[in-house]
Design a protein that fits this description.
It is built from 18 helices and no strands. It is an all-alpha fold. The protein has one domain. Helix 8 packs antiparallel against helix 9. The longest helix is centred in the N-terminal third of the chain and has 32 residues. The protein is globular, with a radius of gyration of 21 Å. The two termini are about 15 Å apart.
Length: about 375
């Protein structure tokens, strides 16, 4: 068994976790700052993110489900039933084509944005819970950390959503906020800053007592990579591309920062879990082969992700060149197919990483030494 898998108190090992779960915020932040300093590099960085991280992280879910013989047998109903999450997008597209009214289609896209961020928050919560378990955190410590995670991430998202003029235009709000609106935004920002300072003081006291250093550091990285950098540091300077045509064009750098961190985290958790899963027995399946050779698996996923890049180019809203116009029938059809893939991914993830309902996951995630 690889040394990284044998290290207790870590998901994949000290160095492994340092890169995938702690350092991912630094990698994401560096890419965002590079794009901010040299906007001409944003499109190449975006394309690299799609092929090297975003596509592989989607495919990693399929590797844990459809390609795994045991999972196909035990979760047949889930794997078939979850395909229904492609339906809402096609239904919204059908309504748009039949009536010409965008209300249902725009509602679908708005919901997709919210579920996307919720999915990232939940992934950070899951990783935080693992480090809390390793640190044997008390129920009170868990409650405080979890509360800070949810409030800080969603508050930063909300401030960015209402504070950026482009977002307000998309939402149909005044480009210039009235005095009351500015006061609310300022008050929210001050409240978030005070909350963050209070949590940092609390975490400092815990660490001086020799408790909770790892969960606190992870939570700090999660807050920086998922909220502070994309929404409060980089996002306010967007759009970085000339003549943005869609909301996605307007916030490319912010989306990329959050996506890079999320993708690295997800690939890390899948690699660590697969190593343990397939180290226990001599299973001879394609999924087992990929699980034991993560470098080969990653190379294959990058290759397949070239098709994902093509899908992005076909969906009209893509900043990396569009095969079809955004308002065209084909462009909108590929757009709902794109979001259907993500809805499917979000739902499957909610079901396949439930430690309490799947005892084998405790071993795969490093919570127990034996299966």
């Amino acid at each position: 068994m690889p040394a990284s898998v044998r290290e207790a108190g870590w998901i994949g090992g000290r160095r492994f976790d340092a890169f995938f779960f702690f350092g991912s915020s630094l990698v994401a932040g560096a890419m965002g700052l590079i794009a901010l300093a040299w906007p001409v590099l944003l499109l190449p960085l975006w394309a690299a993110w799609l092929v090297l991280l975003d596509g592989p992280h989607l495919l990693a879910t399929f590797g844990r489900t459809y390609l795994d013989t045991r999972e196909r047998k035990e979760r047949a109903r889930l794997l078939v039933g979850s395909l229904l999450f492609f339906v809402p997008g096609f239904a919204a597209w059908g309504v748009l084509r039949l009536t010409g009214e965008r209300a249902a289609f725009d509602l679908f896209l708005g919901f997709a944005t919210l579920w996307s961020f919720h999915h990232a928050v939940r992934q950070n919560y899951g990783l935080l819970s693992l480090y809390e378990s390793f640190a044997k955190a008390t129920p009170r410590e868990r409650k405080i950390d979890t509360g800070f995670l949810y409030v800080s991430l969603w508050a930063a998202f909300g401030l960015f959503l209402l504070g950026h003029p482009q977002n307000r235009r998309i939402l149909g709000l005044p480009a210039e906020l009235p005095a009351l609106g500015r006061a609310v935004l300022l008050g929210g920002g001050v409240a978030l800053a005070l909350l963050s300072l209070a949590w940092l003081a609390y975490a400092g006291v815990r660490m001086r007592r020799g408790r909770g250093a790892r969960p606190a550091l992870f939570l700090l990285c999660a807050a920086c990579g998922s909220a502070i950098l994309p929404f409060l540091v980089i996002g306010p300077f967007e759009p970085l591309v000339r003549e943005p045509q869609t909301p996605e064009h307007m916030f490319m750098a912010a989306a990329m920062v959050g996506g890079v961190m999320h993708g690295l985290q997800y690939l890390g958790i899948v690699v660590a879990a697969n190593r343990r899963r397939f180290s226990r027995h001599e299973e001879r399946s394609f999924a087992a082969m990929l699980g034991r050779t993560p470098g080969v698996a990653y190379g294959l996923m990058v290759g397949v992700s070239l098709l994902y890049l093509l899908l992005n180019s076909a969906r009209g809203a893509s900043p990396v060149g569009s095969i079809y116009p955004e308002a065209s029938t084909a462009g909108q059809l590929f757009l709902v197919l794109y979001w259907g893939l993500f809805f499917h991914h979000y739902y499957l993830d909610q079901r396949i990483w439930r430690v309490r309902q799947q005892p084998s996951l405790r071993y795969e995630l490093g919570l127990e030494e034996t299966a």
